[in-house]
Design a protein that fits this description.
With about 55 residues, this protein is an alpha+beta fold. The chain has one domain. Helix content is about 20%, strand content about 25%. A four-stranded antiparallel sheet has the order 1-2-3-4, with no helix packed on it. β2 and β3 form a beta hairpin. It is globular. This is DUF397 domain-containing protein. InterPro entries: DUF397. Pfam families: DUF397. It comes from Lentzea waywayandensis.
Length: about 55
């Protein structure tokens, strides 16, 4: 069983994107499907957004 996590900024835990560790991402309104994302791709994504705005 995958533990899906939503952003702490989502007030009701719905209408958002959820992340499943080692699995991928999904829309909370369509939880039966998900987009597979490799750990390397997820790490690259997180690095790109954390470096945004830095020169």
């Amino acid at each position: 069983m995958v533990e899906w996590r939503t952003s702490s900024y989502t007030p009701n835990g719905q209408d958002c994107v959820a992340v499943g560790r080692g699995i991928g991402i999904r829309d909370s309104k369509a939880p039966a499907t998900h987009l597979p994302v490799s750990p390397a791709a997820w790490t690259a994504f997180l690095r790109s957004i954390s470096n945004r705005g830095r020169a």
